[in-house]
């Protein structure tokens, strides 16, 4: 292998593949929009620092993530909670009781905000989709079992 070819490889800035962007509407809560804004600001600083340090790997990572979060900010559709809390809607906090007696509470949020382990559920998840439009006392199918809605906040 020629030295010129090796030098070309060393000088090349590695392009990382873009993070996939969901085809679903990018619905966000006010908190979710604030998180997106904070992430864009943080990544802009990270990108500038990587550029200043001439750290090509960090620059590639920051550029990729900045493209993702900038696109998510551009497509964000802010949804404020409606005053009617009688039915499940985006942004609602819903408590269900499963057949085995387990009570679970989830807040239905945007895809980038979702973290089921911490009580937030993506609006495109099967459970959230089953819950939309339902009222307290309604039953939904959840993972091959039944769950009753016991509270909507």
Characterise the protein shown here:
The chain contains 4 helices and 7 strands; from the N terminus they run αβααββββαββ. It has about 150 residues and is of the alpha/beta class. The protein folds into 2 domains: about 15-80; about 95-150, Roll (Chitinase A, domain 3). A 5-stranded mixed beta sheet has the order 5-4-3-7-6. The model is unreliable at about 5-10 (pLDDT under 50).
Structural key phrases:
single chain, alpha/beta, Chitinase A, domain 3, 2 domains, 5-stranded mixed beta sheet, two-stranded parallel sheet
Average of the residue pLDDT scores: 91
Work out the helicity level: 25-40%
Helix tally?
A: 4
Question: What is the H-and-E element order?
Answer: HEHHEEEEHEE
Quantity of strands, as a count: 7
Spatial extent as radius of gyration: 21 Å
- Enumerate the strands of the largest sheet in spatial order, edge to edge or round the barrel: 5-4-3-7-6
How much β-strand is present in the residues? 15-25%
How many separate domains make up the residues?
Answer: 2
Question: Which geometry do the CA atoms define?
Answer: elongated
Query: Which assembly state applies to the chains in this document?
Result: single chain
Q: What does the largest sheet look like?
A: 5 strands, mixed
Structural class: alpha/beta
Q: Detail the poorly predicted runs.
A: 5-11
- State the end-to-end distance: 66 Å
């Amino acid at each position: 292998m020629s030295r010129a070819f090796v030098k070309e490889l060393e000088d090349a800035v590695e392009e990382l593949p873009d993070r996939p962007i969901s085809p679903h509407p990018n619905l966000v809560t006010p908190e979710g929009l604030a998180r997106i804004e904070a992430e864009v600001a943080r990544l802009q600083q990270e990108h500038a620092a990587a550029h200043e340090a001439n750290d090509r790997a960090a620059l590639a990572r920051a550029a990729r993530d900045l493209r993702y979060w900038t696109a998510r900010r551009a497509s964000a559709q802010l949804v404020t909670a409606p005053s009617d809390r009688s039915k499940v809607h985006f942004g609602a906090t819903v408590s269900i009781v499963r057949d085995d007696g387990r009570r679970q509470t989830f807040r239905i949020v945007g895809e980038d905000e979702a973290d089921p382990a911490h009580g937030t559920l993506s609006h495109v998840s099967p459970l959230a989709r089953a819950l939309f439009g339902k009222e307290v006392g309604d039953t939904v199918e959840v993972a091959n079992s039944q769950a009753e809605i016991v509270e909507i906040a």
